[in-house]
Design goal:
Blueprint: H1 2-60, H2 70-90, H3 100-109, H4 116-123, H5 130-141, H6 150-176, H7 189-211
Helix pairs in contact: 1-2, 1-7, 2-6, 3-6, 4-5, 6-7
């Protein structure tokens, strides 16, 4: 009778462990799926930012083009709407949204899922020594050595929302809606550039945390000269 009781208890413990492992794997699979989507979105924003600045540089360096033209108003307005809408998507926390903010908040809620052991396992087969993996992990762990310190993630969320505040407000009140009380502060293009660099740095940081992958550059390298279209007359 005692044997049966111990056997049943062991089975129960194993069942609990399997359920915990399943929940962990489900979370990790979801986070990895989200990270792919977030990566593509931010990479597009960074790429379009580069294209926009290159086109402005072409215009400014050609005296025949650098004049008043409605097309330039269209270009600036389209760029601002595209980029600010994309930034706005990354800081939304609706239950159906996939965003950088929701991704970070999910880690805050379940920090134990990203343990030191999990992080080190991501480094295996890369040739990187375990001590290097531990040192990299410590920037996320702080005093909590066994898994990520959610207060560190919370600090990143706070920074993200602070830096995005003026951009989100403009996107909400001007781009997404025609608000009766528009914002007084209009974001400058330089502020967009700075925020995109911050967004890129955050993405690199959490790619390292979740996958042990160090991203050097998010912006893709074009295999062709995309600016060559400006060497061709557009009107026959």
């Amino acid at each position: 009778m005692c044997y049966i009781s111990e056997h049943n208890q062991m089975t129960k413990n194993e069942r609990i462990k399997r359920n915990q492992e399943k929940l962990t794997n489900d979370k990790l699979n979801k986070w990895n799926k989200w990270l792919d989507i977030i990566y593509r979105e931010i990479r597009s924003l960074v790429t379009f930012n580069r294209v926009f600045k290159d086109v402005i540089n072409i215009i400014q360096n050609n005296p025949k083009l650098n004049s008043q033209n409605i097309f330039y108003d269209y270009l600036f307005s389209s760029y601002a709407s595209l980029i600010l809408s994309g930034i706005r998507r990354q800081i939304k926390e609706d239950k159906d949204s996939i965003s950088l903010l929701r991704f970070l908040n999910e880690i805050i809620e379940s920090p134990q899922i990203i343990s030191q052991e999990f992080f080190i396992n991501n480094y295996k087969n890369t040739g990187i020594e375990e001590i290097s993996a531990i040192n990299d992990f410590n920037q996320f762990a702080g005093e909590i050595k066994s898994y990520v310190d959610n207060s560190k993630i919370s600090n990143d969320v706070k920074l993200l929302m602070e830096k995005a505040k003026i951009l989100e407000l403009y996107a909400d009140k001007i781009i997404a809606h025609c608000d009766s009380s528009p914002p007084k502060n209009i974001p400058k293009f330089e502020e967009i550039d700075i925020f995109l660099m911050f967004l890129e740095d955050l993405l690199k940081k959490y790619f390292l945390l979740l996958r042990g992958t160090c991203i050097v550059k998010i912006e893709p390298t074009f295999q062709y000269d995309w600016k060559n279209i400006f060497n061709i007359p557009w009107i026959n």
